[in-house]
Design brief:
With 261 residues, the chain is an alpha/beta fold. The protein has two domains: 193 residues, 2-enoyl-CoA Hydratase, Chain A, domain 1, CATH 3.90.226; 48 residues. It is 43% helix and 16% strand. The chain is built from ten helices and ten strands. Strands 1-2-3-5-7-10 form a six-stranded mixed sheet, sandwiched between helices. It is globular. The two termini are 31 Å apart.
Length: 261
């Protein structure tokens, strides 16, 4: 693969880099299809536990749709139905995806960052939804996820005004979880996901991710019933026994891959 998206494997880690720095890592149909395939392959690979997405270079995470390509007459049809490489259908991915936001995240790049599970930003990063300034509405689920990340008032402010915020403000309002120096970004994201891969059961990561997003649209009693079912299944899984033994024996746990027993 990898004319427009570069995929690297580091043990259990899956690193996807949008590789179009000359156009601020903007996306057109071919790039979106590559990105969608990367996530399909990530989900299907039992050896891959945690993913990272970032942009090539130091200017942009992603500027969203490639407007120059579109303005030049490029055919924008043929996009994955879920938009921006399929990552907006985050609930179809059972595994965690971490955004390493290395520069500007604008339009679709803002969407991509918001739709990841955790965001680690370079101190040089910035964020803008931009849609209203193009006569568009906030797209691909941002009206669902952004209020849940930062609250309704702050979400409306960002989505209405399309103003640009820097990494420090993004951290303050809860849009990102960590801010690090630019030269440490990928290393810090890698350390974060490697810790997950080395110490946490992938089955419980998948269960927790599903419940967090599913329960956002459930009432409290319904969420509790779901948790009860999931937690009792987890208690009798081999991972629970392995976790207890690892603690008692003072060693790192050796959890099974997803789909393995």
């Amino acid at each position: 693969m990898a004319e427009f998206c570069k995929v690297e494997r580091e043990g259990r880690l899956w690193i996807v880099t949008i590789n179009r720095p000359e156009v601020m890592n903007s996306l057109h149909p071919a790039a979106n299809r590559e990105l969608a395939k990367a996530w399909d392959d990530f989900e299907a690979d039992p050896e891959a536990w945690v993913g990272i997405i970032t942009g090539a270079g130091d200017r942009a995470f992603s500027a969203g749709n490639d407007l120059k390509y579109q303005a030049s007459g490029g055919d924008m049809r043929g996009q994955p139905e879920s938009g921006f490489g399929g990552l907006t259908q985050r609930f179809g991915l059972t595994k965690p995806v971490i955004a390493a936001v290395n520069g500007v995240a604008a339009g679709g790049g803002f969407v991509l960052a918001a739709m990841c599970d955790v965001r680690i930003a370079s101190s040089a990063a910035s964020f803008t939804s931009i849609f209203t300034k193009r006569g568009l509405v906030a797209e691909h689920g941002t009206t669902w996820i952004v209020p849940r990340l930062i609250g309704v008032g702050r979400a409306l402010d960002l989505l209405w005004t399309s103003r640009k915020i820097d990494a420090r403000e993004a951290l303050r309002i809860g849009l990102v979880e960590y801010v690090v120096p630019p030269e440490e970004l990928v290393a810090e994201a890698t350390r974060y996901v490697r810790t997950l891969a080395d110490t946490v059961s992938p089955a419980t990561l998948a269960d927790t991710k599903r419940m967090v997003y599913a329960h956002a649209s459930l009432g409290y009693p319904e969420a509790l019933r779901d948790v009860d079912e999931v937690q009792w299944r987890a208690v009798v899984r081999p991972d629970a026994i392995e976790g207890a033994n690892a603690l008692l024996e003072k060693r790192a746990p050796r959890f099974a891959r997803l789909g393995k027993t």
